[in-house]
Amino acid sequence: MDITDISSFFKSYVETEEVPVVMCDLDYRIIYANRLALEEFGKYELTVGRSLRLYMNEESLSKINVVVEWFKESTENNSIFVGRIEDEDIDLYITAVRDENNELIGFCNKRRKRSADKCEPYDAI
Mind listing the pLDDT tens digit for each residue in 5-42? Predict the structure, then answer.
C-alpha cells in the first residue's frame, strides 16, 4: 500500500464511528455513508451517488443551502449546530469538508454526545 494514499485509513476510521456519518459534495451528491448511516437511514433507501436533495423536504434543503453558503463565506466557518436528539443526549452539527488548499469541497453531518463516560480511563486494559 502506498503510504501517501490514506483514503483506506480514513474510511476505516469513519467506519469505527459509533454514529451515522454521511458526506456530500457541493452538488449535494452523497459520496460516502458509513455502515451506521446506511442502517439508520435505510428506510429512506439512502444510496451513495444519489443527491441528498431526494431525501429532504423544502425547509431542510433551504437550511442546508444557507449553511453551505456560510461555509463558503470564510475558511473559519467550519461547523454549525443544527439540532439536538434529547433522549440520546446528542448534539447535531453540519461540518465543512475542505481540501488541502482549504477550499470547500463538501459537507458532512456530525454528532456529539454530551454525557460523560462513566468508566475509568483505560478501564479495558
Answer: 668 888 888 888 888 899 999 999 999 999 989 888 87
Domain of 38 in residue numbering reads as 14-113
What CATH number did the domain enclosing 25 receive?
3.30.450.20
- Asked if 15 and 6 touch (Cβ cutoff 8 Å), the reply is no
- pTM equals 0.82
For residue 121, being part of any structural domain is answered with no
pLDDT in tens, 61-72: 999 999 999 999
Q: What is the rounded distance in angstroms from the CA atom of residue 24 to the CA atom of residue 106?
A: 5
Q: How many domains does the chain have?
A: 1
